[in-house]
Amino acid sequence: MSDKLNQIIQKQQKQIEEPHKKEDDVVQLVGFIIGQEEYAVPILSIQEIIKPIEYTRVPSVPDYILGVFNLRGSVIPLIDLRRKFKMDSVKPTEDTRYIVMKGHDNTAGFVIDRLTEAIRIKGNRIGPPPETIHAEKGLVYGIGMREENILTILKVEALLKRDF
Amino acid sequence: MEDIQEILEDFLVEAFELIEQLDQNLVELESNPDDLELLNSIFRVAHTIKGSSSFLNFDVLTGLTHHMEDVLNKARHGELKLSHEVMDVVLESIDLMKSLLHAIRDNGNDTSVGIDITDICRRLDIISNGEEVSAPVTPAQMDPVETPMDEDNVDYSKLSDKEVEEEIERLLKMRKEEDRQRKSQAAVSTPASTNVASSVQEDKYEEEEPKVAAASVKRAAPESSTPAKKDASSSMEQTIRVEVKRLDHLMNLIGELVLGKNRLLKIYDDVEERYEGEKFLEELNQVVSSISLVTTDLQIAVMKTRMLPIAKVFNKFPRMVRDLSRELGKQIELEISGEETELDKSIVEEIGDPLVHIIRNSCDHGIEDIATRRAKGKPETGLIQLKAYNEGNNIVIEITDDGKGLDPDLLRSKAIEKGMITEREADGMSDKEAYALIFKPSLSTAKVVTNVSGRGVGMDVVKTNIEKLNGIIDVDSELGQGTVIRLKIPLTLAIIQALLVGAQEEYYAIPLASVLETVRIPLDEIYTIEGKNVLRLRDEVLSLVRLSDIFGVKQVYEGGEHTYVVVIGLAESKLGVVVDMLVGQEEIVIKSLGDYLQGIEGIAGATIRGDGRVTLIVDVAALMNLAKGINVDIRASAETVVKAKTVPSDYVVLVVDDSAMDRNIMKKSMEPIGVKTIEASNGQEALNMIKSSEHSIDAVLIDIEMPRMDGYTLAGEIRKYSKYKNLPLIAVTSRTSKSDRLRGVESGMSEYITKPYSPEYLESVVRKNIKL
Predict the structure, then answer these.
(1) Cα–Cα nearest to B565, from B503, B608, B619
(2) SS3 B574
(3) Cross-strand pairs, B716
(4) CA distance B577 to chain A (A)
(5) Which of B108-122, B413-427, B611-625 has the highest mean predicted lDDT (pLDDT)?
(6) Beta carbons of B535 and B525 less than 8 angstroms apart
(7) Is B361 an active-site residue?
């Protein structure tokens, strides 16, 4: 019984992690804008999306870590994706959101400019990451081709990995 | 299978406890060899371990305990004199038992580590056979049930498997019989120590007390060895064993509750301000205070479940001191008091090592040898006192010896020799600071390195471990008279009292256990010596560092003539931390920053305050390290103005009014001054403009009645920012009653102009307030 369950879980995990290998599988993503570009992360890795709340600065960390905030009693780091991608940071607007992402052993909030939509994309529409993106190196999982634009799909585990 | 595992675990827990007890009793026995009661209880313990280990098929352990039992049995019957030499062998075999038990715990059996017991068994045999005394004299008062003579003469190593099994069977039966009988005599003997089934920890502690009352290990606690107490403890206190994990979880939940309580208190304060005099406030007050009371009690109750008596650690020292004194050829007496003092489990685990090092040091370097002591006119036997007691939210452990004391001059010269300090530094050092040098790694005043101490590592370990616990070390010594080392350690680690301080716009929490005092000083009392800021506090020179320099806090406002200094102490060092504000003392729950932000220097964790904001907790030890790298002249930097404004057009006045006409009138009135004006049409908008710090605003004109946020609320909100605590806020309103004015003052308005007003009047008020 548990073997069967494990198989199913593993299969699901594969679907999340390696969408382009399963040609016909549909991947569900949440799209958002940072700067000019549209990015996306798998919907299952998102814990919640909240409006900006107050945060506390933490000393002696890289500038893209804005600080920590209180998410219902948990202290969670807040990361500015604009600065992480070497863009100039901007003042929060009405559209600014924090996306709280959950990995294996880490949870963090990410500041994004605005949300776009929930996206369903076929696995075979996702290509490997281009070689040239420097600031996002290692963070990109793949490029999703859509009718009207392309999506940069981010690796959540890499985003949640401490790199300083 | 699981049953066996469970039995095994119970066996291990019990065996470790028993052995600890055995250790202690044996040391006592050595100085008091005629104490038959003591000897009997030792025998019973050895017997219990033998019984249960043979039940679980630990043959090596069984064999060892069996041989030991032989010796003890002979001693019990007066056939054998327990000399120091005999004791050495017995104690050694107990050490072997310990290693065997460790092996069992780690590997599940006692054979795979390959501990060889043949030699020790042989020596035990020699002892037990060596002295042949003709007729065994069984003392009359001995309990007949407890002398199972014949069963102890079987040598297991010679038996076949089958025979062993039979033997075990037989032993088990006997044991059961014994247990049964002994239970019926519970009031006379001490059942729990032999009863495998009732492995109840609590009872053990209580029992130990009455037993331990001998000459060498003097218990200062007077209540020991009272038979009445013995009776009480044998009536079996109801206890259960709980996994530590569950308690930890409970502690976390309580932590959440404490945060909730803090939040509730804060909200109540706000509500109280707003609805003063209303009837429901009274009820709310009652609920809030009862919840806060219960939460505090609950927290204490859960904390108590995690508490262990420090006896757990202290108990191993009599044995250690005994071994050391024999090894060093000194006579040392250890006096323990306050071992019933309780500490959080996690702290008890950490405190053992430092104490071992301190006591070893006292034995080796502190106490002189017999000849020297005699020459100095001191009693031949050196005395080490180990004392624990509560002091507020801390526990103090005091280690006193009457040895030769520390020589501050020798310490200074040693430190100079090793290049740790310069001669100038040494000259400026007080004796107390010189004593602190013993905690520096690789400084040892010992002339010879013995295998006990002298390598200069131990005290460094003490310092590191105590720092980890946020504790403070205090050393006091008098040359020729002795040394006192005082360790002050917080009772618990999860929920602590903290001092909240403000550095510019940021707040930090400093564990109160590390705060020695706070002082308010004028800036011109800060001096600079070799690029370091120092303060003369009474007769001490204290180095100073600004919290905002350590954490790179953005400088947004000037501090003024005075500043606050929080004097923090950790282990043996002290530092003055300059902060801009003292917020107060609060109970905080320590939360980790998670993996992502772990190990940031200077930050020990975070906590959530009553207002829901996150406040970082300062890591005092790291702070002291960081402070060394900072060279900012506090006085000079405090005097430089943030941004100089020279001409009137540099000044900015914010006009807040919902009527565009009113705003225009105000702007017109201020035209003659030549200042720049910006506008907001309601309180919320104005607050956002102020918060954004886009403009450096010098004064605000505020209408009272406005949509979204009125003038009073706006003023109150602005005043919450310490950088705006001196910003002129001028109310411009048609509300003229006295109570309105009063409310204006309460909310933080600096001036009150009533409509209608003459443009000249407004102009003069603004001029006055921005000093133009």
Answers:
(1) B503
(2) strand
(3) none
(4) 16
(5) B611-625
(6) yes
(7) yes
Q: At which residue do the structure tokens 């600096």 appear?
A: B750
H helix or E strand, kind and range, residue A28: strand A26-34
Angle, nearest 10°, between helix axes B317-328 and B2-31? 50
- The full set of domain ranges for chain B reads 2-200, 244-305, 309-490, 495-639, 648-770
How far is Cα B183 from Cα B195, in angstroms, rounded to an integer?
Answer: 9
- What tens digit of pLDDT does each residue of B70-88 get? 777 777 777 777 777 777 8
- In this model, does residue B419 exceed pLDDT 70? yes
Report d(CA B594, CA B337) in Å as an integer. Answer: 41
Q: Contacts of residue A164 in chain B, CB cutoff 8 Å?
A: none
CA atoms within 13 A on the CB side of B17: 21
Look at A86-95, B425-434, B535-544, B575-584 and tell me which has the smallest mean pLDDT.
Answer: B425-434
Q: Which CATH number fits domain B244-305: 1.10.10, 1.10.287, 3.30.70, 1.10.1060?
A: 1.10.287
Among candidates A60, A91, A106 on the partner chain, residue whose Cβ is nearest the Cβ of B601 = A60
Could you count the other beta carbons within 10 Å of the beta carbon of residue B283?
Answer: 10
Architecture, CATH, for domain B648-770: 3-Layer(aba) Sandwich (3.40)
CATH number of B309-490: 3.30.565.10, 2.50.20.10, 3.30.499.10, 3.40.50.1170?
Answer: 3.30.565.10
Q: Which helix (H) or strand (E) holds A146?
A: none
B495-639 belongs to CATH 3.40.50.720: no
Topology, domain B2-200: Four Helix Bundle (Hemerythrin (Met), subunit A) (1.20.120)
Written in H, E and C, the secondary structure of B128-154 is: HHHCCCCCCCCCCCCCHHHCCCHHHHC
Cβ neighbours of residue A27 under 8 Å, at least 6 residues apart? A15, A16, A19, A42, A120, A121, A122, A123, A126
Asked if A75's CB is within 8 angstroms of B613's CB, the reply is no
> Chain A, 85-104: which have a CB under 8 Å from a chain B CB?
91
- Looking at this predicted complex, what is its ipTM? 0.78
The whole-number average pLDDT for the span B500-504 is 88
Whether pTM > 0.90 for this model: the answer is no
Consecutive H or E run containing A7: helix A2-17
**C-beta of residue A64 within 8 angstroms of C-beta of residue A88:** no
Separation between Cα atoms, residue B620 and residue B509, nearest integer Å: 10
**What domains are defined for chain A?**
2-159 (2.40.50.180)
Q: Is B451 a catalytic residue?
A: no
Question: Residue B591: its chain A contacts at CB < 8 A?
Answer: 74-75
Measured distance CA(B76)–CA(B93) in Å, rounded: 18
Number of residue pairs across A and B with CB atoms under 8 Å?
Answer: 70
Predicted confidence band of residue B204 (pLDDT cuts 50, 70, 90): very low
A160/B contact by beta carbon, under 8 A: yes
Residue B548 with chain A: CB contacts under 8 Å: none
Higher pLDDT, B720 or B313: B313
- Alpha-carbon distance of A19 to A124, in angstroms, equals 8
Tokens representing B493 are 């680690």
Q: Quick one: closest CA in B to A71, which residue?
A: B612
Does residue B519 contact residue B551 with C-beta atoms inside 8 Å? no
pLDDT at B228: 42
Residue B419 in contact with partner chain A when CB distance is under 8 A: no
Candidates B594, B616, B521; CA nearest to B561 is B521
Which single residue is written with the structure tokens 């863009």?
A87
Known catalytic membership, residue B14? no
CB B689 within 8 A of CB B680: yes
Closest CA in chain A for residue B552: A59
> What span, in angstroms and rounded, lies between the C-alpha atoms of B100 and B60?
8
